Amino acid sequence: GWDGRGERPLKRCEHHIHIEGTLEPKMLFALAERHNIALDSSMYSTIPALEERYRNFANLDDFLAYFNKAMDVLLDEEDFAALAFAYMQRVHADGLVHAEVFFDPQAHTGRGVALSVVVNGLKKGLKQGELEFGISTELIMCFVKHLPVESALEAVAEMKPFVEKGDVIGLGADSSEKNNPPSKFAAVYSLARELHFPRLTMHSGEEGPADWVRQTVFDLGINRVDHGFHAADDEKLLEELARRETFLTLCPLSNVRLQVTPEGVHQSPIPLLLAKGVKFSLNSDDPAYFGGYILDNYLAVHAAFNFPKSTWRRIAQNGIDGSWCSDARKAELS
Ligand code: ES4
Ligand code: ZN
């Protein structure tokens, strides 16, 4: 059947993309050389060996060890700009029209890189992409769940001027989910609300249970959930998510690589979410690590479920409607 390409192709929006997760092995090795950084040889030998390692992540934390190490090569504004622009260039070919891009400020400031270098560099690369390719973009900071709540509070406070300027539109939370229930971070979201962060989201239910998605939505009052995969284990919760129009940002290929759906995308609850009327988008998460950018994710879902054209149109339109862009931009995309 129709796969979203060809005649009147789907306009795809991406809401779950970690910019550090677009750092391709090739760029990683090139930046290491440019900055004279000696890569840890137990992790990094050759590009093909690294790509092979990326095909064998045992779980989220196994992946995060590589994800957090690779960023050591991102040092100056130019690096962040180049990273963001390379992503824009790559997804332009995929029919992407709007991107909401995550970054982990603590992962950079913790290595001594100034926050302004990170945000200004990313903004520069995204702007250049907007101009050249007509893709609209927003930046969302994520605090990392593996560091103390105190560190997240500092990261949120430090972002205030960039939020006021409109450079960063929201707060998310990512990294290790194990032993980190959403309720642990209530104060971080309270602070973001006090500081008028316009948008709030959180990684939840990727490895954690449905009950943690429940906590995210009901207790923390967050109406977008990144992954939210395990919400599908709880039918009552799905009905509530549909009623509240909670938006899930699903990442099909990520789920395969991180052993959430070890046998393949066909294990994803996407058909159940459609049946229950839960809104979602399809996303690449960390495309340099998980074997595909946005179009690859769409095509993998199509290969698994062979949805009719009407379903694909609905998925794409839900992605536009669920975007954090202006109504004028939504109208342009619809
Ligand atoms: C992530 Cl797949 C995933 N899950 C949680 N945190 C992340 N950071 C980057 N990718
Ligand atoms: Zn993610």
TrEMBL record:
Active site: 206 (proton donor)
Binding site for Zn(2+): 16, 18, 203, 285
Chain positions of site Important for catalytic activity: 227
Compartments reported by the entry: Cytoplasm; Nucleus
Positions contributing to substrate binding: 286
Adenosine deaminase domain segment(s): 12-334
Biological function: Catalyzes the hydrolytic deamination of adenine to hypoxanthine. Plays an important role in the purine salvage pathway and in nitrogen catabolism.
Family the UniProt entry places it in: Belongs to the metallo-dependent hydrolases superfamily. Adenosine and AMP deaminases family. Adenine deaminase type 2 subfamily.
Protein name as catalogued: Adenine deaminase
Organism field: Rhodotorula toruloides (Yeast)
